[in-house]
Design goal:
12 strands, 5-stranded antiparallel beta sheet, alpha+beta, 5-stranded mixed beta sheet
Protein backbone atom coordinates (compact mmCIF):
# COMPACT_ATOMS: atom_id res chain seq x y z
CA UNK A 1 0.00 0.00 0.00
CA UNK A 2 2.86 2.41 0.81
CA UNK A 3 4.49 1.65 -2.55
CA UNK A 4 1.18 2.44 -4.22
CA UNK A 5 1.10 5.88 -2.61
CA UNK A 6 4.72 6.51 -3.63
CA UNK A 7 3.94 5.52 -7.23
CA UNK A 8 0.93 7.81 -7.26
CA UNK A 9 2.99 10.70 -5.86
CA UNK A 10 5.75 10.16 -8.41
CA UNK A 11 3.23 9.90 -11.24
CA UNK A 12 1.66 13.21 -10.29
CA UNK A 13 5.05 14.88 -9.79
CA UNK A 14 6.47 13.56 -13.06
CA UNK A 15 3.33 14.56 -14.95
CA UNK A 16 3.42 18.09 -13.55
CA UNK A 17 7.15 18.42 -14.27
CA UNK A 18 6.63 17.23 -17.83
CA UNK A 19 3.77 19.68 -18.39
CA UNK A 20 5.76 22.59 -16.92
CA UNK A 21 8.86 21.81 -18.99
CA UNK A 22 6.92 21.43 -22.23
CA UNK A 23 4.98 24.59 -21.49
CA UNK A 24 8.18 26.55 -20.83
CA UNK A 25 9.65 25.32 -24.14
CA UNK A 26 6.51 26.32 -26.01
CA UNK A 27 6.50 29.81 -24.50
CA UNK A 28 10.14 30.46 -25.51
CA UNK A 29 11.01 31.90 -28.94
CA UNK A 30 11.03 29.22 -31.59
CA UNK A 31 14.50 27.72 -31.56
CA UNK A 32 16.22 24.44 -31.01
CA UNK A 33 15.99 23.28 -27.35
CA UNK A 34 19.23 23.63 -25.47
CA UNK A 35 21.18 20.62 -24.29
CA UNK A 36 20.06 21.28 -20.69
CA UNK A 37 16.42 21.42 -21.76
CA UNK A 38 16.74 18.20 -23.70
CA UNK A 39 18.42 16.43 -20.77
CA UNK A 40 15.76 17.74 -18.36
CA UNK A 41 13.02 16.49 -20.63
CA UNK A 42 14.76 13.14 -20.96
CA UNK A 43 15.13 12.78 -17.18
CA UNK A 44 11.47 13.61 -16.57
CA UNK A 45 10.29 11.19 -19.28
CA UNK A 46 12.52 8.44 -17.86
CA UNK A 47 11.07 9.03 -14.37
CA UNK A 48 7.57 8.99 -15.79
CA UNK A 49 8.16 5.74 -17.73
CA UNK A 50 9.75 3.94 -14.76
CA UNK A 51 6.83 5.01 -12.54
CA UNK A 52 4.28 3.74 -15.07
CA UNK A 53 6.12 0.40 -15.34
CA UNK A 54 6.06 -0.10 -11.57
CA UNK A 55 2.39 0.94 -11.49
CA UNK A 56 1.57 -1.73 -14.07
CA UNK A 57 3.43 -4.34 -12.00
CA UNK A 58 1.50 -3.25 -8.93
CA UNK A 59 -1.80 -3.63 -10.79
CA UNK A 60 -0.78 -7.14 -11.81
CA UNK A 61 0.25 -7.87 -8.20
CA UNK A 62 3.84 -8.59 -9.25
CA UNK A 63 5.57 -5.67 -7.52
CA UNK A 64 7.78 -6.36 -4.52
CA UNK A 65 10.68 -5.02 -2.49
CA UNK A 66 12.95 -4.89 -5.55
CA UNK A 67 10.53 -2.51 -7.24
CA UNK A 68 10.69 -0.28 -4.15
CA UNK A 69 14.49 -0.18 -4.35
CA UNK A 70 14.27 0.62 -8.06
CA UNK A 71 11.96 3.52 -7.25
CA UNK A 72 14.10 5.09 -4.52
CA UNK A 73 17.40 4.57 -6.40
CA UNK A 74 15.73 6.09 -9.44
CA UNK A 75 14.74 9.05 -7.26
CA UNK A 76 18.40 9.58 -6.30
CA UNK A 77 19.48 9.36 -9.94
CA UNK A 78 16.76 11.76 -11.07
CA UNK A 79 17.58 14.18 -8.26
CA UNK A 80 21.28 14.09 -9.26
CA UNK A 81 20.43 14.73 -12.90
CA UNK A 82 18.15 17.66 -12.09
CA UNK A 83 20.67 19.15 -9.65
CA UNK A 84 23.38 18.86 -12.29
CA UNK A 85 21.19 20.55 -14.90
CA UNK A 86 20.09 23.36 -12.54
CA UNK A 87 23.45 24.55 -11.25
CA UNK A 88 25.24 21.85 -9.27
CA UNK A 89 26.10 22.89 -5.74
CA UNK A 90 24.12 26.10 -6.16
CA UNK A 91 21.05 24.30 -7.51
CA UNK A 92 17.72 25.10 -5.82
CA UNK A 93 16.66 21.47 -6.35
CA UNK A 94 18.93 19.83 -3.78
CA UNK A 95 15.82 19.24 -1.66
CA UNK A 96 14.97 16.41 -4.09
CA UNK A 97 17.51 14.24 -2.22
CA UNK A 98 15.47 14.83 0.93
CA UNK A 99 12.32 13.75 -0.86
CA UNK A 100 14.09 10.60 -2.01
CA UNK A 101 15.11 9.85 1.60
CA UNK A 102 11.55 10.42 2.83
CA UNK A 103 10.20 8.17 0.09
CA UNK A 104 12.70 5.47 1.07
CA UNK A 105 11.64 5.76 4.71
CA UNK A 106 8.02 5.28 3.65
CA UNK A 107 8.55 2.17 1.51
CA UNK A 108 11.77 0.69 3.01
CA UNK A 109 11.62 1.81 6.67
CA UNK A 110 14.53 3.35 8.60
CA UNK A 111 17.40 1.25 7.29
CA UNK A 112 16.42 1.90 3.68
CA UNK A 113 16.25 5.64 4.43
CA UNK A 114 19.81 5.59 5.80
CA UNK A 115 21.10 3.76 2.73
CA UNK A 116 19.39 6.19 0.38
CA UNK A 117 20.74 9.12 2.43
CA UNK A 118 24.27 7.70 2.06
CA UNK A 119 23.69 7.17 -1.68
CA UNK A 120 22.36 10.70 -2.07
CA UNK A 121 25.32 12.12 -0.13
CA UNK A 122 27.82 10.22 -2.29
CA UNK A 123 26.01 11.24 -5.49
CA UNK A 124 25.82 14.91 -4.50
CA UNK A 125 29.46 15.00 -3.31
CA UNK A 126 30.65 13.28 -6.47
CA UNK A 127 28.63 15.66 -8.60
CA UNK A 128 30.12 18.68 -6.87
CA UNK A 129 33.69 17.28 -7.21
CA UNK A 130 33.22 16.42 -10.88
CA UNK A 131 31.79 19.87 -11.65
CA UNK A 132 34.66 21.55 -9.78
CA UNK A 133 37.34 19.50 -11.57
CA UNK A 134 35.76 20.06 -14.97
CA UNK A 135 35.37 23.80 -14.58
CA UNK A 136 37.67 26.27 -16.35
CA UNK A 137 38.54 28.02 -13.11
CA UNK A 138 42.21 28.02 -12.00
CA UNK A 139 43.01 24.87 -10.03
CA UNK A 140 43.10 25.34 -6.32
CA UNK A 141 41.45 23.65 -3.40
CA UNK A 142 38.59 21.46 -4.57
CA UNK A 143 36.24 23.05 -2.04
CA UNK A 144 36.19 26.62 -0.92
CA UNK A 145 34.88 27.51 2.50
CA UNK A 146 31.50 28.30 0.98
CA UNK A 147 31.51 25.07 -1.00
CA UNK A 148 32.36 23.08 2.12
CA UNK A 149 29.53 24.85 3.96
CA UNK A 150 27.00 24.04 1.20
CA UNK A 151 28.18 20.44 0.94
CA UNK A 152 28.27 19.94 4.70
CA UNK A 153 24.86 21.50 5.29
CA UNK A 154 23.29 19.32 2.59
CA UNK A 155 24.93 16.14 3.90
CA UNK A 156 23.90 17.00 7.47
CA UNK A 157 20.36 17.70 6.31
CA UNK A 158 20.25 14.33 4.54
CA UNK A 159 21.50 12.54 7.67
CA UNK A 160 19.04 14.29 9.98
CA UNK A 161 16.14 13.72 7.59
CA UNK A 162 17.11 10.04 7.26
CA UNK A 163 17.15 9.58 11.06
CA UNK A 164 13.92 11.51 11.58
CA UNK A 165 12.15 9.87 8.65
CA UNK A 166 13.31 6.45 9.82
CA UNK A 167 12.00 7.10 13.31
CA UNK A 168 8.69 8.37 11.98
CA UNK A 169 8.47 5.41 9.61
CA UNK A 170 9.01 2.98 12.52
CA UNK A 171 6.38 4.77 14.58
CA UNK A 172 4.03 4.81 11.62
CA UNK A 173 4.64 1.12 10.98
CA UNK A 174 4.04 0.24 14.64
CA UNK A 175 0.92 2.41 14.77
CA UNK A 176 -0.31 0.98 11.48
CA UNK A 177 0.29 -2.55 12.73
CA UNK A 178 -1.58 -1.85 15.95
CA UNK A 179 -4.38 -0.20 13.99
CA UNK A 180 -4.57 -3.15 11.60
CA UNK A 181 -4.70 -5.53 14.56
CA UNK A 182 -7.47 -3.46 16.14
CA UNK A 183 -9.37 -3.35 12.85
CA UNK A 184 -9.01 -7.12 12.50
CA UNK A 185 -10.21 -7.60 16.08
CA UNK A 186 -13.11 -5.28 15.37
CA UNK A 187 -13.99 -7.21 12.21
CA UNK A 188 -13.84 -10.51 14.07
CA UNK A 189 -15.92 -9.05 16.90
CA UNK A 190 -18.45 -7.68 14.41
CA UNK A 191 -18.59 -11.02 12.61
CA UNK A 192 -19.01 -12.87 15.92
CA UNK A 193 -21.74 -10.46 16.99
CA UNK A 194 -23.56 -10.91 13.68
CA UNK A 195 -23.21 -14.68 13.92
CA UNK A 196 -24.59 -14.68 17.46
CA UNK A 197 -27.53 -12.47 16.51
CA UNK A 198 -28.26 -14.61 13.44
CA UNK A 199 -27.98 -17.91 15.33
CA UNK A 200 -29.91 -17.04 18.48
CA UNK A 201 -33.36 -18.68 18.57
CA UNK A 202 -35.00 -15.63 20.12
CA UNK A 203 -36.30 -12.80 17.98
CA UNK A 204 -34.58 -9.43 18.40
CA UNK A 205 -35.80 -6.06 17.15
CA UNK A 206 -34.38 -2.59 17.76
CA UNK A 207 -36.02 0.74 17.01
CA UNK A 208 -35.07 4.40 17.29
CA UNK A 209 -36.69 7.12 19.37
CA UNK A 210 -39.34 7.64 16.67
CA UNK A 211 -40.30 3.93 16.99
CA UNK A 212 -38.88 3.12 13.55
CA UNK A 213 -37.39 -0.34 13.11
CA UNK A 214 -33.59 -0.29 12.80
CA UNK A 215 -32.68 -3.99 13.07
CA UNK A 216 -34.45 -7.36 12.88
CA UNK A 217 -32.49 -10.58 13.33
CA UNK A 218 -33.02 -13.84 11.45
CA UNK A 219 -35.15 -15.49 14.15
CA UNK A 220 -37.49 -12.49 14.34
CA UNK A 221 -37.97 -12.53 10.55
CA UNK A 222 -38.77 -16.26 10.68
CA UNK A 223 -41.24 -15.89 13.56
CA UNK A 224 -43.06 -12.89 12.08
CA UNK A 225 -42.74 -14.04 8.43
CA UNK A 226 -41.23 -10.78 7.18
CA UNK A 227 -38.86 -10.48 4.24
CA UNK A 228 -35.27 -9.40 4.70
CA UNK A 229 -34.84 -5.65 4.14
CA UNK A 230 -38.57 -4.86 3.80
CA UNK A 231 -38.94 -3.93 7.49
CA UNK A 232 -36.16 -1.34 7.86
CA UNK A 233 -37.53 2.08 8.71
CA UNK A 234 -41.06 0.78 9.15
CA UNK A 235 -43.11 1.67 12.27
CA UNK A 236 -42.57 -0.75 15.13
CA UNK A 237 -46.33 -1.17 15.51
CA UNK A 238 -46.53 -2.63 12.00
CA UNK A 239 -44.43 -5.60 13.14
CA UNK A 240 -45.58 -5.88 16.76
CA UNK A 241 -49.02 -4.29 17.17
CA UNK A 242 -49.58 -3.33 20.80
CA UNK A 243 -45.92 -3.38 21.86
CA UNK A 244 -46.01 0.36 22.59
CA UNK A 245 -48.19 -0.40 25.58
CA UNK A 246 -45.30 -2.39 27.09
CA UNK A 247 -42.64 0.29 26.45
CA UNK A 248 -40.37 1.77 27.63
CA UNK A 249 -39.50 -1.02 30.08
CA UNK A 250 -41.15 -4.40 30.59
CA UNK A 251 -39.28 -7.33 32.07
CA UNK A 252 -41.77 -9.85 30.70
CA UNK A 253 -45.06 -9.73 28.85
CA UNK A 254 -47.12 -11.57 26.25
CA UNK A 255 -48.40 -10.26 22.96
CA UNK A 256 -50.66 -11.88 20.37
CA UNK A 257 -49.86 -10.84 16.80
CA UNK A 258 -50.89 -11.91 13.31
CA UNK A 259 -48.14 -12.52 10.75
CA UNK A 260 -48.20 -11.50 7.09
CA UNK A 261 -49.38 -15.05 6.31
CA UNK A 262 -52.39 -14.65 8.59
CA UNK A 263 -51.02 -16.94 11.31
CA UNK A 264 -51.67 -16.14 14.95
CA UNK A 265 -48.55 -16.01 17.12
CA UNK A 266 -48.24 -15.74 20.89
CA UNK A 267 -45.02 -13.93 21.79
CA UNK A 268 -43.32 -13.73 25.17
CA UNK A 269 -41.24 -10.57 25.06
CA UNK A 270 -39.23 -8.08 27.09
CA UNK A 271 -38.71 -4.40 26.24
CA UNK A 272 -35.67 -2.48 27.49
CA UNK A 273 -34.16 0.92 26.60
CA UNK A 274 -31.24 0.73 24.20
CA UNK A 275 -28.01 2.17 25.60
CA UNK A 276 -26.39 5.03 23.72
CA UNK A 277 -29.50 6.42 22.04
CA UNK A 278 -32.20 8.08 24.18
CA UNK A 279 -35.66 6.74 23.40
CA UNK A 280 -34.43 3.72 21.41
CA UNK A 281 -35.75 0.30 22.41
CA UNK A 282 -34.51 -3.28 22.36
CA UNK A 283 -37.23 -5.95 22.10
CA UNK A 284 -36.35 -9.62 22.66
CA UNK A 285 -39.09 -12.21 22.23
CA UNK A 286 -39.78 -15.93 21.85
CA UNK A 287 -42.54 -17.71 19.98
CA UNK A 288 -44.75 -19.29 22.65
CA UNK A 289 -47.46 -20.46 20.25
CA UNK A 290 -46.44 -24.12 20.26
CA UNK A 291 -45.82 -24.08 24.03
CA UNK A 292 -49.25 -22.61 24.71
CA UNK A 293 -50.82 -25.14 22.35
CA UNK A 294 -49.09 -27.98 24.19
CA UNK A 295 -50.26 -26.56 27.50
CA UNK A 296 -53.83 -26.42 26.20
CA UNK A 297 -53.55 -29.98 24.89
CA UNK A 298 -52.25 -31.14 28.26
CA UNK A 299 -55.04 -29.38 30.14
CA UNK A 300 -57.59 -30.80 27.72
CA UNK A 301 -56.13 -34.28 28.11
CA UNK A 302 -56.27 -33.99 31.90
CA UNK A 303 -59.88 -32.81 31.74
CA UNK A 304 -60.84 -35.56 29.36
CA UNK A 305 -59.06 -38.20 31.45
CA UNK A 306 -60.93 -37.13 34.59
CA UNK A 307 -64.17 -36.89 32.68
CA UNK A 308 -63.54 -40.28 31.09
CA UNK A 309 -63.07 -42.00 34.43
CA UNK A 310 -66.31 -40.46 35.72
CA UNK A 311 -68.10 -41.27 32.47
CA UNK A 312 -67.08 -44.93 32.62
CA UNK A 313 -68.48 -45.32 36.11
CA UNK A 314 -71.70 -43.53 35.14
CA UNK A 315 -72.10 -45.62 31.99
CA UNK A 316 -71.74 -48.87 33.95
CA UNK A 317 -74.33 -47.64 36.43
CA UNK A 318 -76.73 -46.84 33.60
CA UNK A 319 -76.31 -50.13 31.80
CA UNK A 320 -78.01 -52.32 34.42
CA UNK A 321 -81.28 -50.34 34.88
CA UNK A 322 -81.32 -49.70 31.16
CA UNK A 323 -81.14 -53.41 30.44
CA UNK A 324 -83.95 -54.08 32.93
CA UNK A 325 -86.13 -51.39 31.38
CA UNK A 326 -85.55 -52.71 27.88
CA UNK A 327 -86.27 -56.27 28.94
CA UNK A 328 -89.51 -55.27 30.60
CA UNK A 329 -90.56 -53.33 27.52
CA UNK A 330 -89.86 -56.35 25.31
CA UNK A 331 -91.96 -58.59 27.56
CA UNK A 332 -94.84 -56.14 27.34
CA UNK A 333 -94.51 -56.04 23.57
CA UNK A 334 -94.61 -59.85 23.36
CA UNK A 335 -98.02 -59.98 25.14
CA UNK A 336 -99.52 -58.18 22.12
CA UNK A 337 -101.74 -55.75 24.00
CA UNK A 338 -105.03 -54.92 22.27
CA UNK A 339 -104.86 -51.31 23.32
CA UNK A 340 -103.31 -49.33 20.44
CA UNK A 341 -101.99 -46.65 22.75
CA UNK A 342 -100.23 -49.22 24.97
CA UNK A 343 -98.65 -50.88 21.92
CA UNK A 344 -97.39 -47.52 20.63
CA UNK A 345 -95.92 -46.57 23.99
CA UNK A 346 -94.25 -49.98 24.32
CA UNK A 347 -92.61 -49.61 20.91
CA UNK A 348 -91.39 -46.11 21.82
CA UNK A 349 -89.92 -47.49 25.04
CA UNK A 350 -88.04 -50.24 23.19
CA UNK A 351 -86.79 -47.86 20.47
CA UNK A 352 -85.57 -45.23 22.91
CA UNK A 353 -83.97 -47.90 25.10
CA UNK A 354 -81.99 -49.09 22.06
CA UNK A 355 -80.93 -45.52 21.26
CA UNK A 356 -79.89 -44.94 24.85
CA UNK A 357 -77.94 -48.20 24.83
CA UNK A 358 -76.05 -47.09 21.70
CA UNK A 359 -75.33 -43.76 23.35
CA UNK A 360 -73.96 -45.54 26.43
CA UNK A 361 -71.77 -47.72 24.19
CA UNK A 362 -70.43 -44.62 22.44
CA UNK A 363 -69.84 -43.02 25.80
CA UNK A 364 -67.89 -46.06 27.00
CA UNK A 365 -65.91 -46.12 23.76
CA UNK A 366 -64.90 -42.51 24.42
CA UNK A 367 -64.15 -43.07 28.11
CA UNK A 368 -62.19 -46.28 27.62
CA UNK A 369 -61.22 -46.70 23.99
CA UNK A 370 -59.90 -50.15 23.16
CA UNK A 371 -56.15 -50.54 22.81
CA UNK A 372 -55.16 -49.93 19.17
CA UNK A 373 -54.37 -53.08 17.19
CA UNK A 374 -51.40 -51.61 15.35
CA UNK A 375 -50.06 -52.81 12.04
CA UNK A 376 -48.26 -51.20 9.13
CA UNK A 377 -50.84 -49.46 6.95
CA UNK A 378 -50.56 -47.45 3.73
CA UNK A 379 -52.07 -44.18 4.94
CA UNK A 380 -52.64 -42.84 1.42
CA UNK A 381 -54.69 -45.91 0.45
CA UNK A 382 -56.70 -45.81 3.69
CA UNK A 383 -57.38 -42.10 3.18
CA UNK A 384 -58.53 -42.54 -0.43
CA UNK A 385 -60.78 -45.54 0.36
CA UNK A 386 -62.46 -43.76 3.27
CA UNK A 387 -63.17 -40.58 1.30
CA UNK A 388 -64.47 -42.58 -1.69
CA UNK A 389 -66.83 -44.41 0.66
CA UNK A 390 -68.07 -41.13 2.12
CA UNK A 391 -68.81 -39.61 -1.30
CA UNK A 392 -72.10 -41.55 -1.20
CA UNK A 393 -73.08 -39.96 2.12
CA UNK A 394 -76.18 -37.72 1.81
CA UNK A 395 -74.21 -34.94 3.54
CA UNK A 396 -71.74 -34.95 0.62
CA UNK A 397 -74.42 -33.98 -1.89
CA UNK A 398 -73.44 -30.79 -3.77
CA UNK A 399 -70.14 -30.58 -1.82
CA UNK A 400 -66.93 -30.52 -3.85
CA UNK A 401 -64.46 -33.05 -2.38
CA UNK A 402 -60.74 -33.15 -3.20
CA UNK A 403 -58.16 -35.71 -2.05
CA UNK A 404 -54.42 -35.05 -2.20
CA UNK A 405 -51.69 -37.49 -1.11
CA UNK A 406 -48.24 -36.08 -1.91
CA UNK A 407 -46.41 -39.34 -1.25
CA UNK A 408 -46.97 -42.91 -0.11
CA UNK A 409 -46.63 -43.06 3.66
CA UNK A 410 -46.79 -46.06 5.98
CA UNK A 411 -47.42 -45.94 9.73
CA UNK A 412 -48.18 -48.42 12.50
CA UNK A 413 -51.85 -47.67 13.30
CA UNK A 414 -55.15 -49.41 13.96
CA UNK A 415 -56.85 -49.03 10.55
CA UNK A 416 -60.38 -49.40 11.93
CA UNK A 417 -59.89 -46.76 14.62
CA UNK A 418 -58.15 -44.38 12.20
CA UNK A 419 -60.97 -44.87 9.70
CA UNK A 420 -63.44 -43.93 12.44
CA UNK A 421 -61.48 -40.70 13.07
CA UNK A 422 -61.50 -39.88 9.36
CA UNK A 423 -65.22 -40.52 9.06
CA UNK A 424 -65.95 -38.18 11.97
CA UNK A 425 -63.75 -35.37 10.62
CA UNK A 426 -64.83 -35.62 6.98
CA UNK A 427 -68.57 -35.87 7.79
CA UNK A 428 -68.23 -32.86 10.09
CA UNK A 429 -66.59 -31.05 7.17
CA UNK A 430 -69.47 -32.01 4.85
CA UNK A 431 -72.02 -30.70 7.31
CA UNK A 432 -70.12 -27.47 8.00
CA UNK A 433 -69.44 -26.69 4.31
CA UNK A 434 -72.99 -27.41 3.18
CA UNK A 435 -74.23 -27.29 -0.44
CA UNK A 436 -71.83 -25.55 -2.84
CA UNK A 437 -69.12 -25.81 -0.18
CA UNK A 438 -65.72 -27.44 -0.48
CA UNK A 439 -63.85 -30.09 1.55
CA UNK A 440 -60.20 -30.98 0.98
CA UNK A 441 -58.49 -34.02 2.51
CA UNK A 442 -54.71 -34.27 2.26
CA UNK A 443 -51.76 -36.35 3.41
CA UNK A 444 -48.20 -35.03 3.73
CA UNK A 445 -44.99 -35.80 5.56
CA UNK A 446 -44.24 -33.50 8.49
CA UNK A 447 -41.34 -33.42 10.92
CA UNK A 448 -41.16 -37.05 12.17
CA UNK A 449 -44.89 -37.47 11.59
CA UNK A 450 -47.51 -38.05 8.94
CA UNK A 451 -50.04 -35.24 8.75
CA UNK A 452 -53.64 -35.82 7.69
CA UNK A 453 -55.39 -32.54 6.96
CA UNK A 454 -59.16 -32.14 6.66
CA UNK A 455 -60.21 -28.67 5.52
CA UNK A 456 -63.66 -27.23 4.91
CA UNK A 457 -64.60 -23.87 3.45
CA UNK A 458 -66.98 -22.86 6.26
CA UNK A 459 -64.59 -21.58 8.94
CA UNK A 460 -67.46 -21.54 11.43
CA UNK A 461 -65.60 -22.44 14.65
CA UNK A 462 -65.20 -19.44 16.95
CA UNK A 463 -62.47 -18.77 19.52
CA UNK A 464 -64.94 -19.50 22.31
CA UNK A 465 -65.77 -22.91 20.82
CA UNK A 466 -62.10 -23.86 20.42
CA UNK A 467 -61.63 -24.53 24.14
CA UNK A 468 -64.57 -26.98 24.30
CA UNK A 469 -64.28 -28.58 20.87
CA UNK A 470 -62.99 -31.98 22.06
CA UNK A 471 -65.08 -32.19 25.20
CA UNK A 472 -67.85 -34.87 25.25
CA UNK A 473 -71.42 -33.79 24.61
CA UNK A 474 -70.28 -30.44 23.20
CA UNK A 475 -72.01 -29.99 19.86
CA UNK A 476 -73.29 -27.14 17.71
CA UNK A 477 -75.68 -29.10 15.49
CA UNK A 478 -79.13 -30.43 16.18
CA UNK A 479 -79.30 -34.13 16.95
CA UNK A 480 -75.55 -34.50 17.54
CA UNK A 481 -74.22 -36.41 20.57
CA UNK A 482 -71.04 -34.37 20.87
CA UNK A 483 -68.95 -37.55 21.12
CA UNK A 484 -67.46 -37.67 17.61
CA UNK A 485 -64.53 -35.25 18.09
CA UNK A 486 -63.90 -36.32 21.69
CA UNK A 487 -63.69 -39.97 20.55
CA UNK A 488 -61.37 -38.99 17.69
CA UNK A 489 -59.18 -37.11 20.18
CA UNK A 490 -58.99 -40.18 22.46
CA UNK A 491 -58.09 -42.48 19.54
CA UNK A 492 -55.35 -40.21 18.22
CA UNK A 493 -53.95 -39.74 21.74
CA UNK A 494 -53.87 -43.53 22.19
CA UNK A 495 -51.77 -43.69 18.99
CA UNK A 496 -49.28 -41.19 20.46
CA UNK A 497 -50.35 -38.53 17.96
CA UNK A 498 -51.87 -35.07 18.07
CA UNK A 499 -54.94 -33.39 16.64
CA UNK A 500 -55.04 -29.63 16.11
CA UNK A 501 -57.54 -27.24 14.62
CA UNK A 502 -57.56 -23.68 13.31
CA UNK A 503 -60.52 -21.80 11.93
CA UNK A 504 -61.29 -18.41 10.44
CA UNK A 505 -64.22 -17.29 8.29
CA UNK A 506 -61.89 -16.05 5.54
CA UNK A 507 -59.65 -19.15 5.55
CA UNK A 508 -61.95 -22.01 6.49
CA UNK A 509 -61.48 -24.69 9.15
CA UNK A 510 -58.65 -27.21 9.13
CA UNK A 511 -58.11 -30.23 11.38
CA UNK A 512 -54.53 -31.55 11.38
CA UNK A 513 -53.95 -35.11 12.65
CA UNK A 514 -50.30 -35.92 13.36
CA UNK A 515 -49.30 -39.59 13.54
CA UNK A 516 -45.73 -40.58 14.50
CA UNK A 517 -43.72 -42.30 11.75
Amino acid sequence: MRLVWLVLFRTVAASLSLVITVGRLLLQPFEEPSQADSLSLGVIIAAYVSTVVVGIRLRRRKAGRLDAWVQVVGDVVIATGLVYLSGGADSPLTFLYSLAVIGAAVVLDGRGALWVAVSGAVAFSGLVVVLRLSSDAPMGPVFSSRGLFVLGSNLLALALIAVLAGYLARQLSATGGALSAREEDLRRLGGLQQQILSSMPSGLITCDAQRRVTYVNTAARAILHVEDGRHMGQPLESLLPGVSGLAPRSSRGELVVSTNHGQRRILGLSVTPLEGEPGALLIVFQDLTELRRMEEDLKRSDRLASLGALSAQLAHELRNPLAAMRGSAQLLAQERPTDVVSLKLTNILVRESDRLARLVDDFLRFARPPEPMRREVHLDALLTETVDMLRADPLARDVRVEVSAQERLMAAVDPDQLRQVLINLVRNGFQAAGPQGEVRVGLARGEKEAQIRVWDSAGSITEEMMGHLFEPFFTTRDGGTGLGLSTAHSIIRAHGGTIRVRSAPAEGTEFVVGLPL
